[in-house]
């Protein structure tokens, strides 16, 4: 390992109070320039990992794989676009990826434990089944282009910011404001990931990205209303934002259930099974309550009402109020299921095209 000393040049650790790697004054020793000799040094600490040093090491080789290496408190710099580079089963702990540009790089089953990628750019990269914990992100400077993260929902959930009330007060901000800003950033990054993944051919990653974007967009709206409610001085404004917040929470709950029914657009079979279960439940209810005569008639009625072709056939003004109410509930749930099922079929066809 090269031991040429150099000062830690990561400004995030000293000045970016919102970033997970922020730790001012704690790293006092100089960083060394790492020569990428991971065979003799499987654990690297307080090092600057520059692309120029890696280029010197690999020479004319077309590919290079780094396996089971721990990078702790390291800075990554430069442009990694000259080789097919793979990190496998590596750990990046308290690392700053700074403004590094990564092109056609694969991270396979790696662990990112307190890492900042908020100013990095990833082009044609792959993150295959990586683990994420306290990740620093940014919707302004960070870029994902034709890059796949196979578990984008976990990635978005791991995005983090500083919530230390005493520390934030020194910068004239608060945990509420930081949470509100973080949820908005996560929503924008989730959209960025969805755009990056949608044309890459990985259906599982795509539909999980749909889940991440859909749920995070609602969380951002809820966080915004919560922040506005807490900041409002008048009672009327508090009630207004509180009411909108409740409505968004209900929308979020319905969206979560709807997404689980069809796997966020990717599980047609699951949607079919949900429809069969819905029809079966109402068929049993109709049979037990005696709404319709016999099990076959009850099942047939449940199918027709759920598929919205038999509501007027079975519901009439002469029917009892409990019967009309039960059929109406069946019809509404059938309509809900129908609006999930049909778009799922269309989505499957469009993805194939």
Mean of all residue-level pLDDT scores: 91
CATH architecture of the domain at 268-352: Orthogonal Bundle
Portion of residues within helices: 40-55%
Give the radius of gyration.
27 Å
- CATH topology-level name of the domain at 268-352: Helix Hairpins
Identify the overall geometry. Answer: elongated
Biggest sheet overview: 5 strands, parallel
Number of strands: 18
Q: Which structural category fits the helices and strands?
A: alpha/beta
Low-confidence stretches: none
Q: Please report the first level of CATH classification, the CATH class of the domain at 268-352.
A: Mainly Alpha
**Looking across the biggest beta sheet, what order are the strands in?**
3-6-10-13-16
Residue fraction in strands: 15-25%
N-to-C CA distance? 51 Å
Q: Give the topology string: H per helix, E per strand.
A: EHEEEHEEEEEEEEEEEEEEHHHHHHHHH
User: Helical stretch count?
Assistant: 11
């Amino acid at each position: 390992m090269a031991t040429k000393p150099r000062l830690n040049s990561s400004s995030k650790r000293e000045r970016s109070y919102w970033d997970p790697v922020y730790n001012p004054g704690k790293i006092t020793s100089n960083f060394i320039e790492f020569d990428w000799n991971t065979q003799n040094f499987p654990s690297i600490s307080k090092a600057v990992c520059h692309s120029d040093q890696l280029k010197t090491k690999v020479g004319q080789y077309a590919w290079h794989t780094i396996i089971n290496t721990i990078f702790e408190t390291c800075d990554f710099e430069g442009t990694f676009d000259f080789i097919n580079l793979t990190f496998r089963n590596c750990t990046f702990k308290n690392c700053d990826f700074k403004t590094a540009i990564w092109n056609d790089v694969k991270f396979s089953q790696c662990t990112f434990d307190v890492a900042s990628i908020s100013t990095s750019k990833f082009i044609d990269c792959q993150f295959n089944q990586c683990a994420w914990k306290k990740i620093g992100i940014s919707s302004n400077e960070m870029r994902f282009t034709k890059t796949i993260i196979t578990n984008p929902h976990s990635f978005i959930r791991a995005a983090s910011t500083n919530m230390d009330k005493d520390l934030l007060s020194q910068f004239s901000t608060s945990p509420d404001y930081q949470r509100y800003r973080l949820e908005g950033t996560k929503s924008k990054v989730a959209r960025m990931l969805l755009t990056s993944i949608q044309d890459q051919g990985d259906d599982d990653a795509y539909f999980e990205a749909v889940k991440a974007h859909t749920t995070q967009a609602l969380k951002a709206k809820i966080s915004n209303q919560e922040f506005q409610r807490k900041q409002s001085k008048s009672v009327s404004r508090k009630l207004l934002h509180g009411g909108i917040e409740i409505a968004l929470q209900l929308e979020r709950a319905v969206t979560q259930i709807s997404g689980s029914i069809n796997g966020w657009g990717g599980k047609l079979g699951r949607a079919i099974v949900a429809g069969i279960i819905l029809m079966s439940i109402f068929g049993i209810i109709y049979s037990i309550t005696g709404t319709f005569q016999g099990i076959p008639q009850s099942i047939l009625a449940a199918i027709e009402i759920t598929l919205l072709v038999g509501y007027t056939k079975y519901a009439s003004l002469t029917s009892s109020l409990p019967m009309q109410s039960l059929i109406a509930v069946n019809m509404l749930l059938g309509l809900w299921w129908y609006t999930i099922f049909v778009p799922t079929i269309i989505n499957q066809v469009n993805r194939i095209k």
